[in-house]
Design brief:
Elements: H1 3-26, E1 42-45, E2 48-51, H2 52-55, E3 56-62, E4 65-70, H3 76-86, E5 92-94, E6 99-102, H4 108-145, H5 151-184
Antiparallel strand pairs: 1-2, 3-4, 4-6, 5-6
Amino acid sequence: MDETAFVNETKTKMSHAIEAYKAELAKIRTGRASTGLIEAVNVEYYGSVSPIIRLASISIPDSRTISINPWDAGSLPAIEKAIQKYDPSLNPSNDGKSINIKIPALTQERRKEITKQVGKLSESIKQEIRNFRRLSNEKIKTYEKSKEISEDQSFKIQKKVQDLTDNFIKEIDEITKRKEKEISEV
């Protein structure tokens, strides 16, 4: 068994979980404009459904505005309709050339709800990281029982996996704190 490859495989799985967590956090509205709020919007245009990012450029001209500039001005009504359907709380305004979405400030109550949501998401991703650790440790013990690795090697690899787990949990905590700070800013 290749120890480095085994640890790297576990690290890759944990890294993918962190990236998925970051992507989920990007979709959470914080009162600040973010392209992540609408990147998942699918637009029905000319009989086919396409992601909004294939039909338009999305920019953030200021901290409370998302600007959508379609490649084809004829797609403006379809994009506007898709945004309203995707998130009724977003209020797109169409000026004939582009669509602007003003992001309203969050109420204190809504901030608390979003912070709880982020906390639950954080715990869920930490659990996923711990599950990767558990699966890796089970695999290591299987190798040890079948005499593919020694007890010392087993302990050494488990220690590396635990260090990885600790580092990823710490990274999740840091990402979560940044997001919670962003949510609490008025």
